[in-house]
Amino acid sequence: xxxxxxxxxxxxxxxxxxxxxxxxxxxxxxxxxxxxxxxxxxxxxxxxxxxxxxxxxxxxxxxxxxxxxxxxxxxxxxxxxxxxxxxxxxxxxxxxxxxxxxxxxxxxxxxxxxxxxxxxxxxxxxxxxxxxxxxxxxxxxxxxxxxxxxxxxxxxxxxxxxxxxxxxxxxxxxxxxxxxxxxxxxxxxxxxxxxxxxxxxxxxxxxxxxxxxxxxxxxxxxxxxxxxxxxxxxxxxxxxxxxxxxxxx
Length: 249
What we know:
By secondary structure, the chain is of the alpha+beta class. The protein has 2 domains: 2-139, no CATH class; 142-243. It is 49% helix and 11% strand. Strands 1, 2, 3, 4 and 5 form a 5-stranded mixed beta sheet that branches. The protein has a two-stranded antiparallel sheet with strand order 6-7. Helix 7 (142-152) packs antiparallel against helix 12 (236-243). It is elongated. It starts with a strand and ends in a 6-residue tail after the last helix.
């Protein structure tokens, strides 16, 4: 039996196995937490879920998403196939087989051991995003991450917006330049007794980077999302409204 090239004929509408141990909302919350604990996996995971919003053959899926991540220097340390496996196990992606174009109820191992299948039968592994995947994608969309940042750290809103304004220039800003500008505005919260800053510019820059509003390339550079956040009035709902559909890159 061969693992062949993709042909989706006869596969549409087939429902692959989905994790049913938890309700979709609970499974999504678990995966969101996992990706929060491992932020380097977030963009690969979101791209994989998005790329199999429609039925996708896994080999082509991994190749396509890998090329996009590589173009943006965002390939994860672990193989992309391992990230996909995590999504399947988390219930965000359903995975199933076809043999010679017909749905096969069983695993790849089952198919290889199935004597009823013709020798040389073409076996394909398919992937499709589930309801869990949709919930995760919505919750971790760039606009929602940016809105959550300002909602979670209202005490830093002025400093965060100042950093975005400073970085909205050709060549971006160095950490030292951010330090001087924030310090001049009293936003480093120096201890009145010792004069030592209680926060540092890297805090604000890294929070914005994690939310997709800044990137680092020998300087802090604003992203399209960061500019949209700057253009938005204060408030999480306004940020989501102006930033909907923004790419994570």
